[in-house]
Sequence to fold (86 residues):
Amino acid sequence: MFFVFCVFIVPIIVFVILHISSRRKTDGDALPTEPMEICAFCQKDFPINQLLEKEVGTYGKIYCFCKDCIENLYNEFNNTGVKTGE
Ligand SMILES: [Zn+2]
Fold:
């Protein structure tokens, strides 16, 4: 009788434990995603940690700029031949 108990009950317990632990894992994956913000230039959505936040103007409005737009601005700045004063 004890043997039967082990054969049927133990696998069920193990299965239940595995099921619970795997469900916890998927719950962890379903954590709220990072807040999204729109790039002020290209108007695309990016996670906030991929954007540069800059306070612009005297009213202190904060704009977000993505890496691509910053690089484009940088290249544009260099290509216009603006002297950097060096
Ligand atoms: Zn952008």
Summary: DSSP finds two helices and four strands in the chain.
